[in-house]
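User: I need a structural model of DUF481 domain-containing protein from Candidatus Thiothrix phosphatis for a docking pre-check later this week. Nothing fancy, just the predicted C-alpha cells so I can convert them on my end. Input:
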Amino acid sequence: MKKQILATSIAIGLTQLAIPAFADVTLYDYEQPSSAYEDAYVSGRLNVNSGNQDQTSHDLSVDMNYERVFSSPDRDVKVSGDLLGTSKRGPNTGDDTQENYVGNGSVSANKYFQPNSKGAFWYGDGEVGVKKGAEDPRVKVGVGLGYGRVVNVTPMAQALRLVEALRNKNRLTADLTKAEYNQLANVIAKESEYRSRYGAADYQQNWVNDMETALEATGKTNGKLDAIGILKAYDVLVNERISTRKYGWLVKAGVSEVIKDYDGGDSKPALDVAGEYHRPLSNRTQFSNEASASTILQDDDKSYTAKNNMSLTYEMSDRVDWLNSWALNYDHNDKTDQDTTTNALSSTYRYYLSNKLAFDTVLALSKVDDDITANGNDEVDKSLYMGVTYRLK
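Assistant: Understood. Predicted C-alpha cells for DUF481 domain-containing protein:
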C-alpha cells in the first residue's frame, strides 16, 4: 500500500499540468543558453515562555538553504546544501534541553553530448550528510546517464515585470517583441558578470545603464529614459524580490557508492534514479517537483529509499509570496525490516520587509508512520508559527 501511495505521488508530481494562456511573450520564450542564479536563505523562529511554570522553556529552530546553478550550452553545474538545527526545553523541572541538527550538501554536473540541446547527457555527483548522533558523516558519489534539461527563466520574468512597470509609468510607448524581450533579459542575466567586472559597490549603475541602452534601441522610449524610468528599473530589479523561475524536465539513472554511512558502515554500491519537472503556470506562479529513489545493491542488504518534493509558489504581489510544499520520504531498512514514511506539508505567507528580510507566517502538518506505537509520533503534528527569513543571496 505504501509503495502504491509513493508511486502515485511521484506520478502526480511529474505529470504535465494544463496551463492557462497568458501574455503573448512568455517565460518559455527565453532563448539564453547560458545563465546562473544563486539562492541562499536563513530562516528562524523562537518561542520562549516563563512564569507559572517550573523553568523557562524555549523552542528554537534555524534553517539554512543554499543553491547555486550555472548553465552553459554544454553543461549544467549545481551546488546545494541545507542545515536544520533545533533546540527545545520543556517547562517542568528536570526537562533537559534537547538539541538536534541535520545537514546535507551536494554537487552535481550534467555534461551534454550535444551543446545547446535538451537531450542526452552524462552526469557525476557527490553528497555529504551529517546529523547528530551518527557515528560518521554519510559520503556518496555516483555517475550515470540522463535526458532532458531544466532552464532558468528568471531573467525573462524580471524583464516582463520591468516592462510592465515602465508601461505603467508611461516610459514605454508599446510592448516589446520577443526578440527585444530576449535582448533585455540577456542583460539582466549577466548580473554576476557585471558584479565581477565592476565590483559589488558600482556594478548596478553599469548594469541598469546597459538595460537602458537595450530599451532605447527598440525605439519605444521616446528618446532616453528619464530619472523616473531609471529609478523604476532600479526599484524593480534591485529593491524588489522575485522567486527563481525554472522550466523543463529531466530524468537520470546511474550507479553510486556509499563510501561512508551514518552507522559507520562503508562500501555500499547503490542504484539511483531521479527526475525533475518545473513549469511556470504563469508569470507569477511556479510549480516544481523533484523525485528520487535509491536502492542498495548487496545480497545481504536490500534497503531502499525514495523521496518526492513538490512545491507551488504564487507571487501575490511584489512584496508577498505564498509558498506551498509537500515533502514525502519513504525508507525501508532491510536489516531491521522497518518501513518509515514521513509526510510534511507547509503553507507559508511571506511578506518581504525589504529585498533581504521577510516575515513568515507558516502553517505546517507532519506525520511519521513507522509502525511503532506509543513513541510520540502516532498523531499528525500540527503547528502554526511566525518567523523571519533573511536572504543571503
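Before docking, keep this in mind: The longest strand covers residues 266-282.
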